[in-house]
Glycosyltransferase
Amino acid sequence: MENILWLLFFIAAATQFLYLTLVFGRVAFVYKFVDKGEDEKKPEGVSVIIAARNEREHLEKLIPELFRQDYPVFEVVVVNDRSTDDTEGLLRELSAHFPLLRPVNIRYTPDHVTAKKYALTLGIKVSKHDVLLLTDADCKPVSTKWVRLMSAPVRNANKIFALGHGSYLNQPGILNKMIQFETMLTALYCFSFGLWRAPFMGIGRNLCYRKDFFMEQKAFKNLWHIEGGDDDLFVNRHANKKNTAVVIHPESITVSIPKTSFRDYLVQKNRHFHAGKYYKPKDKLKLGVYSFSHLVFWGTALIVLVNSRSWEPITLVIGLILSRAFLQYAVMKGARKKLEGAGKVLWTMFFDLMYMIYFWIVGTKGYLSKTVRWK
């Protein structure tokens, strides 16, 4: 039994080190941004699409920011999904100041579809341009180059999808630190496999793709019944090594307002984990191998530490735990610097252990849930 325990520990440790170095290390240590330049003589138009419900306060700040973008041809389509906070009045007022703002007001949602997918579909249908850039109402681009950088692979490199990073505002508190840790881990999955030409997920608050392709695929066909997944599941179904690019640049990201209560955060994550059960089997494996080896690594390490009566095994296990912790810190720091321009990722080992517990409890619940909600 003891030999099996050690075998499991070493296999799990090896798997973790391989992921951290070969997979996640692609973003942290290898990738270098190269500005290839672009021909701006005939710039292709971009439609920024936002689906919002009761987001008046956020839209009031976001829309003026969007129209400061340094890009010559773009519009902003805001789909107001049955809001009760006078979002419609705000959009009407802002339209007088920003002629390229196009409000779409939804009065009802058909029973057989989910609200956000329906809202996005309507917004996409009325958009003028073929290049679509999606974000959320509570997001904000960090620079005036956001539209240009995020749409560049689609406009200039014949890509269907461009996957961007969506970070969260830094705030005090342990919940925010947990959100920061999980967001960076999600980014590592998204961009690492994207760079390895095996993309399988996207983030709806910073995602670009072609309208023609969306319409050819009949919008969210076979996804209408799933709450959420308008971003990662759409990408999961259709992205491949030839049609997808990742955008890694600190000026291409959006920053969102994070949840401030554990209850709201768990509702959000329940929706995300629920969507994950519809990934392709091979993509579930990409997540599952890391997550399961993560669990086995910590589980077997703790069992050995509790039951060992000599210093040799304790020293070996602690040595591997610390080695992995230092490597993970270096990966997280390097990736965050590439993606966000900042590299502070303190207490990674603490939140790594916290995340493992959270993932297997909340993730299992979300995976098994039959119903989730958007708002």
User: Anything to note?
Assistant: The first strand starts at residue 46 and ends at 52. The domain at 33-276 is CATH 3.90.550.10 (Spore Coat Polysaccharide Biosynthesis Protein SpsA; Chain A). The radius of gyration is 22 Å.
